[in-house]
């Protein structure tokens, strides 16, 4: 519902019944990437001693799977609109795929490459999902890629062909700085290991 109210309503005359799922998939895989990246940095900083390759493997599988799920929703939405070829629906992709003198065309294709092709090819093997360096690269790529995804959702309908990156980068840095400030503050106030949790032992000895 938030996706319809905040994002889809920007394109006043366009609608898609799949848009909520599309945005959910984008937020979800971005959240998984942020959690995985945070866990890796905490592990490398000397925290989360119980985190092992099996935990990383599961996080990698989640990212791999939901990257494919996002692509499935993206393709389903695009295919149905392309096949029906109704003007009130096709206008959304006409603006992003060739509209405004091709201003957003490269982002349209880059969106698919960084959010699907790259995670899919890199994370396909079991070993890649268990290596911190590979997971970090994919996590950063997914976060950047879905930042571009939301940029592509919003800018063509608001700024038309006059969009830029400078203010977007600045706002992204403000939110990143706010997150790091709150995160590091809370990190120093509580234990990362829930000592009395009934499933702690099962989680520590988790295997895949």
Protein model, in words:
The protein has one domain. 72% of the residues lie in helices and 0% in strands. It has helices at residues 2-6, 19-44, 53-84, 87-96, 99-102, 105-122, 132-158, 166-187, 200-204. The longest helix has 32 residues, at 53-84. It is elongated.
Strand content: under 5%
How big is the Rg? 19 Å
Total number of domains = 1
Instruction: Tally the beta strands.
Output: 0
Morphology call? elongated
The ordered string of helix (H) and strand (E) elements is HHHHHHHHH
What is the SS-derived class? Answer: mainly alpha
In DSSP terms (H or I, runs of 4 or more residues), the helix count works out at 9
The major pleated sheet works out as: none
* Low-pLDDT residue intervals, each spanning 5 or more residues: none
Provide the residue-averaged pLDDT.
Answer: 92
Helical content stands at over 70%
Quote the distance from N terminus to C terminus.
36 Å
For this entry, give a set of tags.
208 residues; mainly alpha
